[in-house]
């Protein structure tokens, strides 16, 4: 139901780059760090347009990668914000099936109204995010480890409870026409409605990062958490809010998948762990925090989805997709590093000065 | 005489069984530069951390404007007007100048129903404040802090402190990592801050820099105040000796001399 058989590209590199803020002058536009991500996306688009034939660029072809991009993008955006703030969230991989199973068991197995299932699934997302956030700030254990722990704990919990409650690892869900239309339908038979949710979340996250004070706090925390706290930023609250938003978005995707496919499986969604990180990193977000842009994350998500789906339109064996993504990831990181360095040294009057 | 802006009386600090500071008493007045001198490990950093609210003194009294104060957090200290600028100044290399200038105190404006970060105003103020400190190269607040030189970052951090109304400015080795020209620029900025009536506490182990800007000097040796004197009361050599612990410096110099003699190398003294 989610992306195909390949979901284990290793993420090793530290990644780079993205921009400062809104509305730059034309001159600085070419120096913007997203340029690297843009070049990458255009390159894979051109590549698959050539090798994928007419089908790839048809509405059906575009829908296939846009659908993948929309689900991944909804998760990648808040994960990207977390990464800009210097954290990681691996638990999204369990959050997606946990949320799917929650709505399927409540509204499918127990026949409760669909709205109960929806609210419970999203509520679970907020709760898991809250726990992640509190654990990270209280224990001071790196978020990588904390969310790795919750990834496994939540997966176990989902499996165990599903068996106890429904006796199965796969539960059917019948949702009404309204829920279908809002969360899990195909427009024109091809495009998932999650596309519109993705666009909405892009706008929200873009606003937060570029136009709100909160966005500045996120950047500052990722740059230097201690200085950020000394400057009066409520770093604990921001951290918890960010973890809650990433879990909420993962829960949203799980919930809408269950509605779309009329069923939920315990094992779905693990691919989102690395895929979201890859999309964010290709998009130029610095893995160590302090730097990143929404435009970049969107481009990274599209790039990933194009490669992931485009391979099926070519004559190549689909197993090569992971190889391409691996190479692409490394190339993107290197390119983003270059553009970030250019952005750092960018001076309108290119005048160098002795140090 | 007027009450000093900041007065420390009998400050002690120990971490467990280790005494780091003994009985430190200091006074800083408005529009005055107090140079805190000392070798590595003399307790300068601990003293700064007490002043900036990172640590609480084990005992002793801190007063501002004659009123007793206690800082529970760095935030608390900065609310009292104490701003600390560390050696590398700008701590957010990948943020724009405007954004990092206003971290935690972002200017906002209305945009329809929303309150948004006022990037234009932030950039304008940041650039103007830096210009006032003589950094004229910067005219675009969207540039990243990481693209600034070390001295420019110091200037940015000092400009920030001044803009937000700091009355005590603590500069922790601001010139240590800088070249000669940049260090001179930072020293000029220190004097500018002094002229604005700010009390500056200038931490350094560079005696020349200290003598250039200082009105008042305190030397720390192994956690105690070894000397406290005003401008012109002691020579550079005397101060260097004090910092290194008096006779030890003479011994050290003799040692270097004999080493030079036996190795037939040209004399090359310590820094400063």
UniProtKB/TrEMBL annotation, chain B:
<feature type="domain" description="ABC transporter">
    <location>
        <begin position="6"/>
        <end position="247"/>
    </location>
</feature>
<dbReference type="InterPro" id="IPR050107">
    <property type="entry name" value="ABC_carbohydrate_import_ATPase"/>
</dbReference>
<dbReference type="InterPro" id="IPR003439">
    <property type="entry name" value="ABC_transporter-like_ATP-bd"/>
</dbReference>
<keyword id="KW-0547">Nucleotide-binding</keyword>
<keyword id="KW-0067">ATP-binding</keyword>
<dbReference type="InterPro" id="IPR003593">
    <property type="entry name" value="AAA+_ATPase"/>
</dbReference>
<comment type="similarity">
    <text>Belongs to the ABC transporter superfamily.</text>
</comment>
<dbReference type="GO" id="GO:0005524">
    <property type="term" value="F:ATP binding"/>
</dbReference>
<protein>
    <submittedName>
        <fullName>ABC transport protein, ATP-binding protein</fullName>
    </submittedName>
</protein>
<dbReference type="InterPro" id="IPR017871">
    <property type="entry name" value="ABC_transporter-like_CS"/>
</dbReference>
<dbReference type="InterPro" id="IPR027417">
    <property type="entry name" value="P-loop_NTPase"/>
</dbReference>
<dbReference type="GO" id="GO:0016887">
    <property type="term" value="F:ATP hydrolysis activity"/>
</dbReference>
<dbReference type="Pfam" id="PF00005">
    <property type="entry name" value="ABC_tran"/>
</dbReference>
